[in-house]
Structures are given as structure tokens and as C-alpha cells.
Write the C-alpha cells for this entry.
Amino acid sequence: MPKLWNETIDAHRQAVRGAILDAAAALVADHGLMSVTMSKVAENTGIGRATLYKYFPDVEAILTAWHQRQVHDHLIHLAEIRDSETAPLVRLHAVLEAYALITFRHGGGTPAAQLHQGTHVAQAQKHLTGFIEGLITETAHTGSLRKDLTSAELAGYCLHATAAAAEMPSEEAVRRLVGVILAGIRDPTGG
């Protein structure tokens, strides 16, 4: 087949796949995770169920792909925040706050927890841990962080502590939580 034809077909497939994931995201946003069915996704996408099954074998596959896309987008968002700041401690604060707000807005719920069991989440978590560890290492060079723990230990603390954001009552409470987390990793001697 000609290259242009292949590119056109690939672009079409990506567009259909994107529309399917967008429809699933809209259903989740409007009615919750359990509202996603093959029939509703097909209806909201405007494609037939037979076509939908060519792309995804079941609802679980759609939700997993949607979640993979969402996790990928969150990681890109955190990198953009990191890159928009210059001072290491400000960068760390901004990224931790953004991550805590993501956790607050998207955390909790048994069906959502099931999506967090895939290998894509383990890979994203590993990437995020390295990402935060790098920010902590960079910030530690300024002398403002604790010296009695490694960057890996501080990163683990930060990530586990931000998990509490899922249970916070408001975004303001999440911001206060991030302040507490940062206070916990600051050098207690004021160095």
C-alpha cells in the first residue's frame, strides 16, 4: 500500500480510538466509572458496536486504555509544571501540589482502585518516583532539605504522604497538606 494510504488509515484509527476514549471519559465524568458499557460508548462515539469491538474487546480494555492516557497526561502536566519554575524548592513545591491536587480530584473509590492495578500504573509510579527523587536531589543541593535521609527516602515519603490528598475535604486542605509535607522534608536546622 502507498505510504499516504497507510498514514491516512493510521490517522483514522487513532482518531476513532481517541473518540472511544473520550466517550468513556465523558461517561465516567458524568455518571461514574460503573456507567461505562460497550453500548453507551458506541452510542456516544457514534460508531457501531461491531466497530467498537474491533478496537477494544471489552469495557475493561477501554477503561485501561483511558486510564493509561490519563496517567500519561498527568505525567506530562507535572513535567510542564516542573519546567515552568526556576528555583528548586519552588519547583518541588509546585509539582507536589499539582500531584496532590490530581490525587484529590481523581483518587478514591473501589472501581477506580481497580484501574490502578495495571502494569502501566506501576511503570508510571516508578517514573513519578524517579521524577520526584530528581527534584529532591536538585533541591537538596541548595542545602534546604534534610540531610539524614536519602533523596529516594524523601521521595517515598512525599509520594506516600500525598496519597492522603484523596481524603481531604477541599483543595485548600490539600494545599495545607503539601505545606506539611514540605515542612517534613526541610532541614530542621534551617540550613
The mean pLDDT is 88. The longest helix spans residues 3-31.
